[in-house]
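Q: C-alpha cells for this one, please.
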Amino acid sequence: MPDKLFNGAFELQLGALCYRKSDDCDLEILLITSRGTGRWIIPKGWPMNKKKPHEAARIEAFEEAGVVGRVHKKPVGRYIYLKWLNTGRVAPCVVDVFQIEVTRTEQKFKETGQRKVAWFSRDKAARLVREVELKSLIATFRVGE
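A: Here is the predicted structure, written as C-alpha cells:
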C-alpha cells in the first residue's frame, strides 16, 4: 500500500475542537462518529471557496453536529490521519484544528441521524479518538483567548 499512501502531497482539512464548561467547571469536548466506520472523531471537512479556514471549521461543526458558538481565528493545533476516499485512494490529511466555544446546540442540522453526537470529559474524549496526535491535542487542550 505505500504506493497509494505516498503518491502525492498531504491534503488539508479543517477541524473543530468544540468545548463547553461543565457544571464542575471542567471542560467537556464534543465528539461525533464518522459515517463510515462509526469511530469517534471531531467535526472536520475540506476547505470551502470564499471561506476563511476558521469559518469553514465553524460551518462543518454546525453541519455535522449542530453546534453554534464562538470560533477562534487561529488553529490550536493540527494532526495527521489517513482518509480513505470513495475512489479507493488513501489520502494523507493534515487537519488544522480550530477551537469553538459552544453556546448552543440545534436538534436539526444537515447530518442529523447520520452520526452520533456526544459530550465527554477531556480525558475520556482523548481516550476515544484513534489518532495519536488528536489524542494529545485533546488531552492538553486549554481554552485560548
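A few notes: The beta strands are 11-21, 27-33, 40-41, 44-45, 67-71, 77-84, 90-105, 117-121. The CA atoms of residues 4 and 87 lie 11 Å apart.
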